[in-house]
Write a structure and sequence with these properties.
Layout (H helix, E strand, L loop, with lengths): L1 H18 L10 E2 L8 E4 L2 E5 L16 E5 L3 E4 L5 H11 L34 H15 L3 E2 L3 H9 L55 E8 L18 E8 L16 E3 L8 E2 L3 E2 L8
Parallel strand pairs: 7-10
Antiparallel strand pairs: 1-2, 2-5, 3-4, 5-11, 6-11, 7-8, 8-9
């Protein structure tokens, strides 16, 4: 009986692994490596112009110079921010305890939870950079797949989704600078006082959601004050600059839309935690080993 039970367990494991074994490479293809894993979407190989032209409203000095970035192979990123439910699976499985942080009134993070009500499909928040990396390492070990943190150039590529200009969608009204129909930011006008459940707004042309609001996202790159010397192959920029700060992207539920632009950049110390800061995951395909 023990042998039979062991065989059944092994067979079930093999079936489970086999169900998720094939790596899709078709752009737009959605897949999951396990039931509790983030949903991934394949981004196409190709190139784009990273950075912001001088005449874009809101442009900052760190958003240039313009430069071409080329991705030799397709890769996958999570369609949504890592959710509170997915984060809870991780903390329960590992027993990791997330320290409290951010003592501003109404903004305190307590053991990885914000002060505002948070449902299972809202973004996980309140983790610092190393804790986000801890989740990714756990996910890679759990699935046997090469999960990693997004690079800044991958994040902008995913946000632009083939578009140019500040956003891949129009403003709410001609001549205005509001994006409440497309993203969660700058207060409750868009229908959400705090974070919105992931996927509450339409995806972009790459099939990615919430790239212009809801929460900021930790990235792999060290902080650089401009793009002089930046990688052109899509890899994370972890030389030069200062790694005492890490790049973040995306804007959050309380900031104005000028900071939601596809090319907008920001940074924070890696030990910062807040109810406005989360992350996505990336994954290589077809055995690629790019860090």
């Amino acid at each position: 009986m023990k042998r039979l039970n062991a065989f059944i367990a092994l067979a079930c494991l093999s079936l489970s692994v086999g169900a998720y074994a094939a790596d899709p490479t078709e752009p737009g293809k959605v897949f999951q490596d396990c039931n509790d894993c983030p949903e991934m979407v394949v981004l196409p190989a190709g190139g784009y112009t990273m950075g912001v032209p001088n005449d874009e409203v809101g442009r900052q000095s760190d958003e240039g110079p313009l430069h071409q970035v080329t991705f030799a192979e397709p890769f996958a990123i999570s369609r949504f921010h890592v959710t509170a439910e997915q984060w809870q699976v991780y903390t329960k499985d590992t027993g990791v305890v997330i320290p409290d942080g951010d003592d501003r009134p109404g903004r305190r993070c307590t053991n990885g939870k914000p002060s505002y009500p948070q449902g299972p499909r809202q973004p996980a928040v309140c983790m610092d950079w190393e804790e986000a990396r801890g989740y990714i390492a756990w996910l890679a070990k759990k699935t046997g797949k090469p999960y990693r943190m997004l690079s800044e150039s991958e994040r902008e590529y995913g946000a632009r989704a083939g578009s140019t200009g500040p956003f891949p969608f129009p403003f709410d009204k001609a001549g205005g600078y509001q994006i409440t129909e497309h993203a969660n930011g700058y207060g409750p006008k868009d229908g959400y006082t705090y974070t919105a459940p992931v996927g509450s707004f339409a995806p972009n042309a790459f099939g990615v959601y919430d790239m212009h609001g809801n929460v900021y996202e930790w990235l792999a790159d060290c902080w650089h004050t401009d793009y002089v010397g930046a990688p052109t192959d899509g890899s994370a920029w972890i030389t030069g600059g200062t790694c005492e700060h890490r790049q973040i992207r995306g804007n959050d539920w309380i900031e104005p839309p000028i900071f939601s632009r596809s090319g907008n950049r920001n940074e924070r110390e890696p030990d910062v935690r807040g109810d406005w800061l989360s992350f996505r995951v990336a994954r290589n395909l077809n055995g690629a080993d790019k860090d």
